[in-house]
Specification:
Blueprint (H helix, E strand, L loop, with lengths): L1 H20 L5 E11 L2 E7 L2 E6 L17 E8 L8 E3 H19 L2 E10 L2 E5 L4 E5 L18 E10 L4 E5 L1 H17 L6 E9 L3 E5 L4 E5 L20 E10 L4 E5 L11 H4 L5 E10 L2 E7 L2 E6 L21 E10 L4 E5 L7 H8 L5 E10 L2 E5 L5 E5 L9 H4 L8 E10 L4 E5 L7 H5 L8 E10 L2 E6 L2 E6 L20 E10 L4 E5 H16 L8 H12 L1
Parallel strand pairs: 13-15, 18-20, 23-25
Antiparallel strand pairs: 1-2, 1-4, 2-3, 4-5, 6-7, 6-9, 7-8, 9-10, 11-12, 11-14, 12-13, 14-15, 16-17, 16-19, 17-18, 19-20, 21-22, 21-24, 22-23, 24-25, 26-27, 26-29, 27-28, 29-30
Helix pairs in contact: 8-9
Length: about 550
């Protein structure tokens, strides 16, 4: 019994000794470098076990291996023995396990960790964090997009751990968070030393369409395009270049957002202070067209002072055209100052005022009665528009086309593009109207024919045609028609056939209408008028004398 107990105690002590001395697989053990050969380090990990590790596992990215005989190192024990009877060990895995412990502690405390970028992968880069490999997204490399990451490769620098999962072996880090934090501290320090209105120097860092970012020594300020110069600046690149050193004034500082607004023009005198004295009203100046819009053109009178020529002030004659068809960008033009509003920094200019009013010029050179010749530009329902000198038009109304035809009929003989002659009848410079007359070129036959003839006059006409409804007569070349009912006082004599072509007949004028060019005549009206005159002169029908007696007496009196 005693011997048996002794053997059991010995076995237990032996097992305990083996458990203590034999390292456990999958753990990190300490070993000693006993030799270096064939690019490998031979390491004694105790309990008569040796293993081999490639020298490259002892090197940091981009550096030579740091290992010598006699060094004590920690390695990861994969297996106690391989086919060659050696332990399978790894320095890299040992560093990884050590690194994960260290990184988890840093992640919990939100501390920075040191690492080096050593490779490029899809969407970013790989970073060695002292044994553990982390992923650095491309958006987390810098505060601005990085075009060339070459200078950053292999460089030891701090990183911030954003996310890590040991079970999956994932670590995501950021370099940008470190830069932003340091920039924020630097920005706060720089801003604390700046005051609004202060003049400082800076370097143009970036140029955009709306302005430029200027580095003031650790903090960027925005120089807006409208604050670069008093004159109009279409794009910041016109006056600035990246890398250029410029003097600027601190216009505004936002302490909460740390935004700084800068200005260059504030360091120069404001040209608007002397606008009223330099550019008095109705004075004429030469300027350069800087911008053209639908409603007009902007003209630079001097650097920093621009005025607007409204489309209505661009031309006397071109009313409904785009300003771009009258002037062009960069063109030098003469303009007149029409209005100045210094409070709103506006100058109203006129282009047409530098040229004479073409209607006034026409009135001076073409008095009423002047005969002109021009091209028919347009035909409307109320007349013709004829092109004249200096791009102005004159109008021939329907009533001024012909003496003989109605206007609606006369206008049918005209076509757009025809050359016509006309006489000037009126020029209204205020309303910009010129009235012309084609028919004024010919004599007014109607006026000549009825000259001195008035309503009630007795004239002699010649019969030119016999019709059922009456007779056609002629007086000094003017045709007129006497209806059947006006051929005689007595109904029995109202017969057209009792007249013959060529007969001379005395008639009474009943109407003279110059507008319709009609002469109204009547035989009946003449007979009634003669009867009335006879009655008044030789007696009344109430006295007992017959009408025949009265007329007979009147005829004798005439004889």
């Amino acid at each position: 019994m005693c011997a048996k107990a002794t053997m059991e105690e010995f076995e237990a002590l032996l097992n305990e000794s083996l458990e203590i001395d034999t390292p456990q697989e999958g753990s990190v053990v300490k070993g000693k470098v006993i030799a270096i050969e064939a690019g490998q380090a031979i390491i004694d990990v105790g309990y008569k076990m040796e293993g081999r590790v490639d020298l490259k596992e002892f090197a940091d990215p981009g550096e030579a291996p740091k290992i010598e005989v006699g060094d004590e190192v920690e390695v990861f024990l994969d297996r106690v023995e391989n086919v060659r009877g050696e332990a399978v060990i790894s320095r890299e895995k040992a560093r990884r396990e050590e690194a994960w412990d260290r990184l988890e502690e840093a992640y919990a405390k939100e501390d920075r960790v040191e690492g080096a970028i050593f490779g490029r992968v899809k969407g970013g880069f790989t970073v060695d964090l002292g044994g553990a490999v982390a992923f650095l997204p491309g958006s987390q490399v810098d505060v601005r997009p990085v075009r060339d990451a070459g200078p950053l490769m292999g460089l030891k620098q701090p990183f911030q751990i954003l996310k890590m999962d040991r079970r999956r072996g994932n670590i995501v880090v950021s370099r940008r968070a470190i830069l932003e934090e340091s920039r924020a501290e630097q920005r706060a320090e720089v801003i604390a030393n700046l005051t609004e209105g202060q003049e400082v120097e800076g370097v143009v860092k970036n140029i955009t369409e709306y302005g430029a970012f200027v580095d003031l020594g650790g903090v960027d300020g925005l120089l807006h395009v409208t604050d670069m110069a008093w004159r109009r600046v279409n794009h910041p690149s016109e006056i600035l270049a990246i890398g250029e050193t410029v003097k600027v004034q601190v216009v505004k500082i936002n302490k909460e957002t740390h935004r700084i607004s800068l200005g260059m023009k504030q360091l120069q005198s404001d040209p608007w202070d002397a606008v009223e004295s330099k550019f008095p009203l109705e004075s004429v100046h030469t300027g350069r067209v800087t911008n053209i819009t639908d409603y007009g053109a902007f003209v630079e009178l001097e650097p920093g002072v621009e005025g607007l020529v409204h489309v209505s002030e661009m031309s006397w004659t071109k009313k409904n055209v785009h300003p771009g068809k009258i002037v062009s960008t960069s063109q030098e033009v003469e303009v007149m100052v029409l209005e100045i509003d210094t409070a709103k920094r506006r100058v109203s200019l006129g282009l047409k005022q530098t040229m004479r009013n073409p209607w006034e010029v026409f009135a001076e050179t073409h008095p009423v009665g002047t005969i002109i010749e021009g091209e028919v530009k347009n035909i409307t329902e109320f007349g013709l528009f004829v092109g004249l000198d200096n791009d102005i038009d004159g109008m021939v109304h329907l009533s001024d086309l012909s003496w003989e035809q109605r206007g609606e009929e006369a206008i049918q003989s005209f076509r757009k593009g025809d050359m016509v002659k006309a006489a000037v009848t009126e020029v209204d410079t205020d309303k910009e109207r010129i009235s012309l007359s084609v028919k004024a070129l010919d004599a007014d036959t109607f006026s000549d024919a009825v000259d001195g003839v008035k309503r009630g006059s007795i004239i002699t006409v010649a019969v030119t045609a016999i019709e059922d409804g009456g007779i056609e007569v002629e007086y000094n070349g003017m045709k007129s028609f006497i209806r059947r009912s006006d051929l005689a006082r007595d109904r029995a004599d109202q017969r057209p056939e009792r007249f013959g072509v060529g007969d001379k007949v005395d008639v009474r004028v009943t109407a003279v209408d110059s507008k319709t060019r009609k002469l109204g005549v009547s035989i009946k009206a003449r007979e009634i008028a003669e009867e009335k005159d006879a009655v008044e002169q030789y007696g009344s029908s109430d006295s007992g004398a017959s009408l025949g007696d009265i007329l007979g007496a009147a005829l004798k009196g005439d004889n």
